[in-house]
Fold this protein.
Amino acid sequence: MFLVGLTGGIASGKSSVLQLFQQLGCAVIDVDVIARHIVQPGYPAHRRIVEAFGPEVLLENGDINRKVLGDLIFKQPNQRQLLNAITHPEICKEMMKETFKCFLQGRRYVILDIPLLFETRKLLRYLKRVIVVYCDRDTQLVRLMERNGLSLKDAEARIQAQLPLKDKVRMANHVLDNSGQWSDTRRQAILLHAQLERSLEYLPLRLGVLVGLASITSFLYLLARCLLPSP
C-alpha cells in the first residue's frame, strides 16, 4: 500500500473530487472529517480550544462554532498557529489509525485529503504521490463568494491565507484542473485512478511486512523447539 496526498485551495473543488474518488472505490481518509470529530465535546482538543479562545467560540449546545473560530484565525495568523498546535497531534493520531485499517484491508493505495499539506509540510515525506485540485483564481473567488456568502474583500483574504494554488501545482505529481466543466474534471480523475491502481508502488511495503511476519514466525518456531523437552 502507498499513500497519496490530495490537496488544493479553498473553493477549488477538492471536496467534489474526493467524493468522486470514493465513488470509484478508493479508500479515502478525509482530514476535515477527522478534524470535526476530534473537536467534539468531551475530547481533549475541544477542552483546549475553549481554554485558548474562550467560550465565545461555542454554540449553545457546546459544539465549536466553526464560523466564529474560522473568522478569528483567518484574521490573526498567530491564532491560526495556536489552533494548529492543538488539533494537529490529535488529527495525526486518528489518521494513523485509519491508515492501518486500510492496510489490513489490502488496499493498493489510500488517498489522504489534507487541505494544508504544503503549508504544514509535516506529512509530505510519507506520501508517494501528491494530487493538487486546481482552478484559476477568478473561478476560485467566484465560487468562494457564492458558497460562503462572502464579499470580494473577505474572499480574497481567505485565499491569501493559503499558499497560492500555482505554487502547489509546481510541487504536485498530478494536477486535476477543475477550472472548467465538471465532466472534464471527472474524466481526469478517472484516468488518474486507473493509473494509480496499475502502479506497483504498493509492493515494497506489502513484501516488507510479509518478510517481517515470516521472520517472526521462524523465530517463534525455533524458540518453541528450544523450549520443548527433548524426547
Remarks:
- The CA atoms of residues 68 and 101 lie 34 Å apart.
- The chain has a mean pLDDT of 85.
